[in-house]
Amino acid sequence: MRVIILGPREPIPPVKGGAIEKLTWELARFLSKNNIETYVVSTTTSNKHIGRFIEIDGVIVHYVTPPIPGGSLFYFTKMPIFSSRAYTFVNKLCQRECVVHSVYFYNVIKGDYRNTPLVITEFEHYPWIREYMYHYPFISTYARLRWEIDALLRIQLAKLLMPRAKLLTSVSELQKNVLCRHIPNICDRVIKVPNFVNTEFYKPTYSKDLREKLGDGAEVVAGFVGRLTPHKGLHVLLYSLSKMDKRLLKKLKLIVIGPRKPGFHFQYTKDLYAKYLYSIVSRSELSSVVRFIGQVDESEMPRYLSAIDILIHPSFVEAFGLVLIEAMAVGTPVVAFDMPPVNEIVTSDVGFLVKPYIHELTKTLEHIVENKYEIYRRKETARDYVERNYSLKRIGLIFKNIYENLME
């Protein structure tokens, strides 16, 4: 059997550590190791690689265009070029049995896939869950209108492109229901296949020295991992810290890992949300509690997630929440809001689900600091839970079975 994966907008193998890039590459390597002839159609940062085939870890990567920037209307500008070249490659290669798996529905904007088994995975929450509602205080009216129009255009495009697939996979039950609601006559072709984590890479890692360095004497070292954008909820976490009993707050350190340089110099930025975060830290005197360490290389993430006692994930909008299972895979419990799809993943045995309010998060954090045994009890079950439900091996075999069934 031959599987061709139409990759994401950034290059494969990943160079920036994005979630879809990581998932695409891990799945491709898994399929190759399980004796499936696997190709990935990818972008590349090197112009000299465009048009070339390079074998990496048993996967044949075909580079067709430079990376495709996000933002509005990319699917009408750069994406059709990628899609057209991808289809030309598929058409040549699929003279005998093969399955095409696209990680974006935009990837099939060009081409006729009626005679080819096509799987489309919808990894993203946008445009289905409109994250821009959380950004309204920090963006102009013009930016808001552009965002709203972009969401409408993407949904219309999805209605046109998604029905071309023999099968659609969603990463959560919430997302499956949203697709069924928006795309006519598609529900019988949508199945839930959750995201996964490579538990051979994300595993408990010795990090005592790093914990001591990050924690600076704190009894509980908490972590936040994510983009500094309103729907990720870091401002809610900061406000929750500011409401904590001062005696308990002194025992806690929050480590923020995100795509910015180390330190906290947001007062100099033009980013209104970053300025807002700075104002909360400054007004609430949290500078000794919160430490911003910037971007961490993907190779170091298991060590950092092992170094913290608990991951706090106050996000309001997710399609899945990959960092949740990455943290649990190294044995680190999570705190997250009790709302879908996160409450499909996190249980009381491996984490803490909290009503999405500042005072509720404050109460939970105070409880954790006062009852640290609650953390250690969950550490014992977190990794086993991920291995049973979200390991690359388990989900990879599900995809393998999907491809085989489509070939019958």
UniProtKB/TrEMBL annotation:
Residues 20-200 form the Glycosyltransferase subfamily 4-like N-terminal domain. The keyword Transferase applies. Signal peptide: none annotated. Residues 217-380 form the Glycosyl transferase family domain. GO terms for molecular function: glycosyltransferase activity. It comes from the Archaea. InterPro entries: Glyco_trans_1 (IPR001296), Glyco_trans_4-like_N (IPR028098). This is Glycosyl transferase, family 1. The lineage of its organism: Archaea, Thermoproteota, Thermoprotei, Thermoproteales, Thermoproteaceae.
